[in-house]
């Protein structure tokens, strides 16, 4: 009876933390995610599909480079700050300091390389020399975008979802105001300059908020001794960084294959519009993942099988419900979406239907994709991502003559296979990390020690 009551209370606490985190994170992310879609609609109406292709390639380079600099460190920060914030705030502070230093250094190096070699990238790799100017514009933007990403990762580690929401509202307001104005008066170059200003403003506003949120947990950012936690970099950040090297640039590589073909810019523009549809479907599932990571990390760290299964169940169930609803909406009103971008529904509908179905699969698989990170099997996660990358590249190579249709088919194949692998690995990780013995020890400890509850920032 007591054990059942304890289980019910623990499950209710997980649901409460999950629901509150999802609500605040969703509220703050809507405007940020809508800005690229609004910009794409405006470009398609004002300039045409080829300019959408130019924007898509340049914006994709910006996002891939920023995530390359910050994704590995951000995952390390989220996972380990969540683990150390309560019992060892000094270590959490050093981890936050190291995350800032590593991300800033990596982003500055990547931005400098893109600025110096913009003409070679545009002319030799993309076969579109006119893109060199835009690549040079976004080079410094990479730094501030990466810093924004790592600050959000740190806040996610302490489950400061309300703070993240407030910052995203401010940041989204800057983006949705500045970017269309820059686009209207100065074209694509104006949109990227405005985007950079929005990222810079968001970064400057976010840092004091991060410091204040950490101090409320008794955590002080420490830069001087930051690299004393280097072992966590080699264990978590390095494989996550390598996964980013595989994951993010793979999208860029596959796009480069298509853009080199006849009518390549128009096909990339069509693909970029299709990816806006995927972004629309996945923006809430990706927020679910942000909420799930620290909760899963806690569950695996405590070898709490019930908590891990509960969190995964909530995450997957929420994402499947969203995916089903979105598929129904697109089946009913999908033609309106295509007309919004000045596309022909009769000609382009197959591409977007494949994207919708693939995005539904991705949504269901996203919580499972966090299991390698949360359970400490980072190198296994890297291997799974490598398989996805190889599948995507090979399939795109064989289907590149079909343009946008070929790349979305290749993407659907890669994600379907990766989902199957994630299901198998999740069963293994739960059995290995949270076996029955670990659960029994956890129950025994709870019966003799006061419970600790996760808290959201006020």
From TrEMBL:
It is found in: Cell membrane. Its main location: membrane. The chain crosses the membrane at residues 21-47, 59-78, 99-119, 131-155, 167-186, 192-215, 236-259, 271-296, 308-337, 349-369, 376-398, 404-425. Keywords: Cell membrane, Membrane, Transmembrane, Transmembrane helix. The keyword tRNA processing does not apply. It is a multi-pass membrane protein. Pfam families: Polysacc_synt. The keyword Transmembrane helix applies. PANTHER family: O-ANTIGEN TRANSPORTER-RELATED (PTHR30250:SF11), PST FAMILY PREDICTED COLANIC ACID TRANSPORTER (PTHR30250). This is Oligosaccharide flippase family protein.
């Amino acid at each position: 009876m007591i054990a059942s009551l304890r289980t019910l209370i623990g499950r209710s606490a997980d649901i409460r933390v999950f629901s509150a985190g999802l609500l605040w994170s969703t509220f703050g992310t809507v405007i940020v995610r809508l800005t690229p879609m609004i910009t794409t609609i405006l470009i398609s109406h004002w300039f045409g599909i080829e300019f959408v292709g130019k924007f898509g390639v340049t914006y994709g380079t910006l996002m891939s480079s920023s995530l390359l600099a910050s994704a590995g460190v951000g995952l390390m920060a989220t996972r380990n700050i969540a683990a150390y914030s309560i019992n060892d705030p000094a270590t959490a502070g050093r981890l936050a300091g190291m995350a800032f230093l590593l991300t800033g250094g990596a982003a500055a190096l990547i931005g400098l390389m893109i600025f110096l070699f913009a003409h070679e990238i545009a002319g030799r790799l993309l076969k579109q020399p006119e893109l060199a100017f835009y690549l040079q514009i976004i080079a410094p933007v990479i730094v501030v975008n990466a810093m924004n990403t790592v600050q959000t990762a740190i806040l996610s580690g302490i489950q400061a979802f309300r703070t993240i929401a407030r910052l995203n509202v401010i940041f989204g307001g800057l983006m949705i105001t500045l970017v269309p104005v820059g686009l209207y008066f100065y074209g694509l170059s104006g949109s990227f300059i405005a985007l950079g200003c929005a990222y810079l403003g968001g970064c400057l506003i976010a840092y004091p908020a991060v410091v204040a949120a950490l101090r409320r947990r008794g955590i002080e950012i420490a830069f001087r001794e930051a690299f004393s936690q280097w072992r966590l970099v080699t264990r978590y950040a390095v494989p996550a960084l390598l996964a980013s090297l595989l994951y993010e640039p793979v999208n860029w590589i596959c796009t480069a294959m298509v853009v080199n073909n006849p009518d390549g810019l128009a096909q990339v523009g069509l693909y970029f519009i299709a990816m806006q549809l995927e972004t629309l479907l996945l923006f809430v599932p990706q927020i679910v993942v942000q909420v799930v990571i620290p909760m899963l990390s806690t569950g695996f760290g405590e070898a709490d099988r019930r908590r891990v299964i509960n969190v995964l169940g909530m995450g997957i169930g929420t994402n499947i419900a969203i995916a089903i609803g979105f598929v129904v909406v697109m089946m009913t009103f999908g033609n309106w979406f295509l007309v919004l971008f000045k596309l022909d529904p009769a000609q382009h509908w197959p591409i977007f239907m494949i994207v919708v179905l693939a995005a539904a699969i991705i949504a269901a698989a996203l919580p499972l994709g966090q299991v390698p990170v949360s359970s400490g099997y980072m190198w296994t996660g890297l291997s799974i991502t490598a398989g996805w990358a190889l599948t995507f590249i090979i399939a795109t190579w064989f289907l590149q003559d079909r343009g946008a249709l070929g790349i979305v088919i290749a993407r659907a194949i890669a994600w379907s296979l990766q989902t199957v692998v994630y299901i198998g690995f999740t069963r293994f990780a739960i059995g290995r990390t949270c076996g029955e013995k670990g659960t029994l020890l956890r129950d025994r400890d709870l019966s003799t020690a006061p419970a600790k509850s996760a808290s959201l920032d006020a």
